[in-house]
Design brief:
The complex is a heterodimer of chains A (166) and B (548). Chain A has 166 residues and is α/β, with parallel strands linked by helices. Chain A has helices at 25-38, 89-92, 119-128, 135-145, 151-163, and strands spanning 13-20, 42-48, 57-65, 78-83, 96-103. The longest helix of chain A is centred in the first third of the chain and has 14 residues, at 25-38. By secondary structure, chain B is of the alpha/beta class. In chain B, helix 18 links the parallel strand 16 and strand 17. The chains are: A alpha/beta (166), B alpha/beta (548). The structure holds thiamine diphosphate and iron/sulfur cluster.
C-alpha cells in the first residue's frame, strides 16, 4: 500500500465502496466521510442505492482533499476500491485507476470477527493504513455512526482490519 | 446557533436545516425518493413535519399555512408534483403571504423511479420562480433564499433538486438567519384567494407582472455567478452539472445559473459573447439550451444521447469533446429482490399459480414482476392498479376479464387507490372485480414511513387509523376479507378462486407487517403505551429501509 505520508491533500483522494444491500456499504462510506470531515478537509460523499435493502448492488463514493467538485468518483479514477462482497469485485473494478488499490472482502479473516456484521468496519481498518488520519479520529467516527452497544465490537473489528492486512 | 457551524450534510438534510433556521412553521409531504429524508430530518431537528396521504394534500396544507402568514415547506419526488399539479398551478395565481417553498426532487437516471421527467418544465408551465442548488451548501442557502423571494413577491417558489444533490453529503456552514417576526393571522383577501374567473383573470395578470419583476431582479443578482476562466470555452450550466463541469473543464469560464426560472437572459447573452465557444451543460431535457436559443443566443448543447440518464464528469468531458461514439456500458450489478421473509411472497405465489392478469402498482411488491413469480402485468403510476384493472375488465372477453386482479400496497392505496375503489363501485364491470391490498403496515419502498393506514404519524406517535374494512363498507363493496399471506396462502387461494368466479366486487386485505418494520412497530407500540414518548429506533452496521 502507498505511504500515508505521501498523500497530498491538494489532490483529491477517491474511494469507492461496493457491496450488496444490507452489508453496510453506506455506513462504511459515512464513517470515512466523517473522518475526512473531522480532519478539516473538503469532503463529498455520494451513493447509488436504488433499492439497496433488497439485496441489490450498492456503491458509495467518498472524495476528500483541499477542494472537491463532483460528488461522484469518475470511472477509472478511484485510488481505493473497498469491496464487501465477492460478487461485486467484477461489477465495480472499472472504478479503479490502473495503479489503484483493491481492498477485497477476503482481506479480512471472517473467523476473527466477533460479529460478522462488522466486516465493513474491519475493511475500513485495512483502508485506514493507507490514509493520513489518526486512529482517534477513526474511533470517534465509528462511535458517532454506530449505536453504543456496537462500539466495542466495531473497534475490535477495526483493529483487526488494521493488523490483518496482507 | 453558532454562525460558523460546519456540518457534513446531505442535500435533503441541508434543506431541513435551512427550514429550521428559517423558521418554517410546517413541513408537509409524501414520501418519495430522493425527497423523503427532508421531512424526516426536519422532524429529527425538532421541526413540525407531517406526512399527508398524498402530495396534492401535502401542498394544499402548506398553501393554507402560507395563506395564514406562516413559512411553509412542501416536499415530494418529481412524479409527486404531477399529483400536486392542480394546487401548484393555481397557487401561482393566488400567491402566498408567508414564504412557501415547494421541493421537487427529480431523478435523472431513474435510480428509483418510474420515469425521468424534468420538472424544470413545471416552473415555466405554472409560472413560479425556480432555484437549483448544486450541493448541500446551496440547498441550505437556496431554501432560505426561496423563502425570502416567496415573501417578497408573494409567490410560491420551486426548489428543484436531483437525486445526486439530495443524497450527496457535502460541507455546510450555517449562518444567522433573519426570521419573520409577525405571528400567523388570518387576513381576508377574497379577490386574491378565491379563484373564480372574475378574480382569476386579474390574478393571472398579476402573476405575469410578478415574474417580470423577478426576472429584472435576477439579471444582476449574485444568484448566477461566473467562475472565471479563459475565453476559449464558456459553459452555461446549473445544478449538479456545475460541479461536474468545474472538474471536467478546469480552464473554462462557467456561468452557473441558480435561478433557472425566470432566466437572466441578458446575463447569458453577455456571457456567451465573452467567450469563443459557448456550451450548455445540463442534465435531462434541453431546457436551458432551448430557452437560450429561443432568445437568439447561439450556443452548443449536448448531443441527444446525453439526454438520457445522469451526467457525470466523464460524460461532460465527452460532451465538450463532441464525442458521440457509444458510451462504455458499466457491468450490470445484482438487481434487488424481495426480502427472504417478505409477506408479499405468499401473494405472488398464489397470483402466479392461478395465472392472474395482475394490474399492479408501485412499491416493494412491484418486484413480484421478477422471477420466480413474474406475476405483474402493468405498473404505471401510484394508484393505477385500480383504474387499469377496471379498464381491462370492462373490455376483455369474459374468460380473460375473470382473471384480472388489481394489486396495490397499503400506502399506495391511501395515496391514490381510494378513488379507484369508488370508481369500482360506481362503474362495476359485468364480471365484477377483485382488489388485493397488500397491507404490510408501512411504506416499505421508501424506507418505512408511516401513513394514515398505520395509525401513526411521521414521528411514529399514535393518531387515528384509517380502517380499510370501514372504507369498503362505506363505498359499498360486497365482499371483504382479511388474510395473512404468510400463514394462510391456501385460504388466500381459495378466496381468490371464489371471488374470480363471481360477478361481484371483492376486496381482500393481505395483512402482515413488513419484516423490516415489524420490530420497529413493536417499539412504537410499546413507546405509545409508556408516558415517555416514542423511542428512536437504532440501526446497526448496515442501513435500513429502501428507496423509491
Ligand atoms: C406520486 C408518487 N409519489 C411517491 C412515489 C414513491 N413511492 C413509490 S411506491 C411508494 C409507496 C410504497 O408503499 P406501499 O404501497 O405500502 O408498498 P410497500 O413498498 O410497503 O410494499 C412510494 C411512496 C411515487 N412513485 N409516486
Ligand atoms: S422491505 Fe419489507 S415489504 Fe419490502 S421486500 Fe423487504 S420485507 Fe418485503
Amino acid at each position: 500500500m502507498s505511504d500515508p505520508a505521501a498523500m497530498d491533500v491538494e489532490v483529491v483522494t477517491n474511494v469507492v465502496f461496493a457491496g450488496l444491500g444490507g452489508q453496510g456499504v453506506l455506513k462504511a462510506s459515512d464513517i470515512l466521510a466523517d473522518v475526512a470531515f473531522a480532519s478539516g478537509l473538503d469532503v463529498k460523499k455520494s451513493e447509488l442505492h436504488g433499492m439497496s435493502q433488497r439485496g441489490g448492488s450498492v456503491t458509495s463514493d467518498v472524495r476528500f482533499g483541499h477542494e472537491v467538485f463532483s460528488p461522484m468518483v469518475p470511472v477509472g479514477e478511484a485510488h481505493y476500491l473497498v469491496v464487501l462482497a465477492e460478487s461485486e469485485v467484477d461489477t465495480s473494478r472499472h472504478y479503479l485507476r490502473p495503479d489503484g488499490v483493491l481492498i477485497a472482502p477476503e482481506w479480512i479473516d471472517a473467523q476473527r470477527l466477533t460479529n460478522p456484521r462488522s466486516h465493513n468496519v474491519a475493511l475500513l481498518g485495512a483502508l485506514s493504513l493507507a490514509l493520513p488520519f489518526t486512529t482517534d479520529t477513526w474511533y470517534a467516527a465509528l462511535e458517532a455512526n454506530l449505536p453504543e452497544r456496537l462500539h466495542a465490537v466495531n473497534r475490535e473489528a477495526f483493529d483487526i482490519g488494521r493488523s490483518d492486512v496482507r | 446557533m453558532h454562525a460558523c457551524d460546519r456540518l457534513l450534510l446531505t442535500g435533503d438534510e441541508a434543506v431541513a436545516q435551512a427550514a429550521l433556521d428559517g423558521g418554517v412553521a410546517l413541513g408537509a409531504g409524501y414520501p418519495g425518493t430522493p425527497s423523503t429524508e427532508i421531512l424526516e430530518h426536519f422532524d429529527t431537528l425538532g421541526g413540525r413535519a407531517q406526512w399527508a396521504p398524498n402530495e396534492k394534500v401535502a401542498l394544499e396544507v402548506a398553501i393554507g399555512a402560507a395563506f395564514a402568514g406562516a413559512r411553509a415547506l412542501a416536499t415530494m419526488k418529481h412524479v409527486g408534483l404531477n399529483v400536486a399539479a392542480d394546487p401548484f398551478f393555481t397557487a401561482a395565481y393566488t400567491g402566498v403571504t408567508g414564504g412557501l417553498v415547494i421541493v421537487s426532487a427529480d431523478d435523472p437516471g431513474m435510480a428509483s423511479s418510474q420515469n425521468e421527467q424534468d420538472n424544470r418544465r413545471y416552473a415555466v408551465a405554472a409560472g413560479v420562480p425556480m432555484l437549483e442548488p448544486s450541493d448541500s451548501q446551496e440547498c441550505y442557502e437556496l431554501t432560505l433564499a426561496g423563502l425570502e423571494i416567496s415573501e417578497r413577491w408573494r409567490i410560491p417558489v420551486l426548489l428543484r433538486l436531483t437525486t445526486r444533490v439530495c443524497h450527496s453529503k457535502t460541507v455546510v456552514r450555517r449562518r444567522r438567519v433573519e426570521r419573520p417576526t409577525s405571528a400567523p393571522r388570518f387576513e381576508r383577501d377574497v379577490q386574491g384567494r378565491v379563484m373564480v374567473p372574475a378574480f382569476a383573470r386579474p390574478a393571472h395578470r398579476r402573476l405575469r407582472e410578478k415574474l417580470a419583476g423577478i426576472e429584472a431582479w435576477n439579471e444582476p443578482s449574485d444568484l448566477n455567478p461566473i467562475r472565471e476562466g479563459g475565453d476559449a470555452l464558456g459553459i452555461v450550466t446549473s445544478g449538479v452539472s456545475y460541479v461536474h463541469a468545474c472538474e471536467a473543464a478546469p480552464d473554462a469560464r462557467i456561468l452557473k445559473l441558480t435561478m433557472t426560472h425566470p432566466l437572466p437572459i441578458g446575463r447569458i447573452r453577455a456571457f456567451a459573447q465573452s467567450v469563443k465557444r459557448c456550451v450548455v451543460i445540463e442534465e435531462g431535457d434541453p431546457y436551458l439550451a432551448d430557452a437560450i436559443r429561443a432568445a437568439g443566443i447561439g450556443v452548443e448543447s449536448a448531443p441527444s444521447m446525453y439526454r438520457f440518464g445522469e451526467l457525470d464528469v466523464n460524460r461532460v468531458r465527452r460532451i465538450l469533446a463532441g464525442d458521440i461514439t457509444p458510451e462504455p456500458v458499466p457491468p450490470r450489478g445484482k438487481p434487488p429482490s424481495l426480502c427472504k421473509a417478505c409477506p408479499h411472497h405468499g401473494v405472488f405465489k398464489v397470483l402466479s399459480k392461478l395465472g392472474c392478469i395482475t394490474a399492479g402498482d408501485i412499491g416493494c411488491y412491484t418486484l413480484g414482476v421478477l422471477p420466480p413469480y413474474e406475476a405483474m402485468d402493468t405498473c404505471v403510476c401510484m394508484g393505477a392498479a385500480l383504474g387499469v384493472g377496471l379498464g381491462l375488465r370492462h373490455v376483455l372477453p369474459e374468460a380473460e376479464a375473470r382473471r384480472v386482479v388489481s394489486v396495490i400496497g397499503d400506502s399506495t392505496f391511501v395515496h391514490s387507490g381510494i378513488t379507484g375503489l369508488v370508481e369500482m363501485a360506481y362503474n362495476p364491470p359485468p364480471t365484477g372485480h377483485v382488489v388485493l391490498i397488500l397491507d404490510n403496515a408501512t411504506t416499505a419502498m421508501t424506507g418505512l414511513q408511516e401513513h394514515p393506514g398505520t395509525g401513526r404519524k411521521l414521528d411514529h406517535t399514535p393518531t387515528a387509523r384509517l380502517a380499510f374494512e370501514d372504507l369498503a363498507r362505506a363505498i359499498g363493496i360486497a365482499n371483504f376479507h382479511v388474510v395473512d399471506p404468510a400463514t394462510e396462502d391456501a385460504r388466500l387461494e381459495e378466496l381468490l378462486v371464489e371471488a374470480l368466479g363471481r360477478d361481484e366486487l371483492t376486496l381482500i386485505v393481505a395483512r402482515r407487517p413488513c419484516v423490516l418494520a415489524a420490530g420497529k412497530i413493536k417499539q412504537y407500540e410499546r413507546a405509545a403505551s409508556t408516558p415517555t414518548g416514542p423511542a428512536a429506533c437504532e440501526d446497526g452496521n448496515n442501513e435500513s429501509g429502501g428507496q423509491e
